[in-house]
C-alpha cells in the first residue's frame, strides 16, 4: 500500500482491480491491517451464485499490494428503489419533457435517478436525454441502463426497438416490455421516474399491478379537456391504490419573445384550482417557452442549466424530494 494513500484512493484502487460485473455490486470496500473487507449486494442471487461471487472477489484482490486477506460480507437486502409514475390522461401535454427535467433536477440535488420511458409506442426519452442511437447491453437476463450526459440513467423501448416496430404490439406484450425495463440492473439508483404513455389503457394497468409505484404525478395543461383526462388518469391511480403526489401545470403562460406580452394559449391557473377542488397537492407550474421546446429537441434539458429556465423544474423537484422524505410541501 502506498504510504499516505487515503481511504477513498484505497477504495478506488481495490474497486479498479475487480471485473465490472462484480464491482457494481460493491456497497463498500476498505483495507485495514492487510485485511480487505468487501460488503456487496447479493440480494438477487441464489446460494450457489453467492459462493461464486465470493470466490470472484477473493481472486480479484488476492494479488494486490497490501492485501493479505480478503473478507466478503454479502447482504441479502437489496435496496428498494422507489418508483414515481408520471402520467397524464391526454397526450402531448409535456409529460416526457417534465419527466426528463425533473429527473435531472433531482439528480442535481444528489438523488440517484433513473428514467424509464414507458411510452412504448412513441418513446421520446432517447432524444430528451441525449441517448439516441445507443443500445443498452445486457448482463445475464438484465438490461444495463444507459448513462445520459446529465447524470441520469435511462432505459427506453426506443433504445431497443427500431422506430415504429412496437406500434404493432398489443397491450400485454407492451406491459411485459415495460416490466423488463423496470427489472433492469439499476445499480445504485434510488429513484425511478416512469414516463407513462398517455391514457388509461392496458400498459398503465399492468404496470400498476407488476411494479407498483410509490406515487404518481399528474401532468396537465390548463385546458379543460386535458384536465378532464387528468382526472381520469387520477382515478386509474386511485383504483390501483397508488397515492397521487400532486398535479403539475404545464404550458402555462407564453411570453412573446418580441413584445414581452404574456398570453395564456391554454388558459392559466386552471390546474391549481382543479387540484384544490380535488384536494390534490399542486406541485408547480411550467411556462410555455421556446427554450423548453428547443432544448428538449436538442437533448439538453433546461433543468441541467443554471439559468432561469431550470427554476420551475427545480421547484417541482424540491417538492417531490420533500414528499419522498415524508415531509409536507
Ligand atoms: N413547457 C413547454 N414549453 C414549450 N414546449 C413544451 C413544453 N412542454 C412540452 N413542450 C413540447 O411539447 C411537445 C410535447 O411534449 P412531450 O413529448 O413532453 O409531451 P408528452 O405528454 O410526453 O407527449 P406524448 O403523449 O406524445 O408522449 C414537445 O415538442 C415538447 O418539446
Automatic annotation (TrEMBL):
GO molecular-function terms, A-Z: ATP binding
Keyword Flavoprotein set for record: no
InterPro entries the record matches: Mrp/NBP35_ATP-bd (IPR019591), NUBPL-like (IPR044304), YlxH/NBP35 (IPR033756)
Keyword list, A-Z: ATP-binding, Hydrolase, Iron, Iron-sulfur, Metal-binding, Nucleotide-binding
Positions bound to ATP: 89-96
UniProt xrefs under Pfam families: ParA
HAMAP family listed in its UniProt record: Mrp_NBP35
Family: Belongs to the Mrp/NBP35 ATP-binding proteins family.
Subunit structure: Homodimer.
Chain's role: Binds and transfers iron-sulfur (Fe-S) clusters to target apoproteins. Can hydrolyze ATP.
Name of the featured protein: Iron-sulfur cluster carrier protein
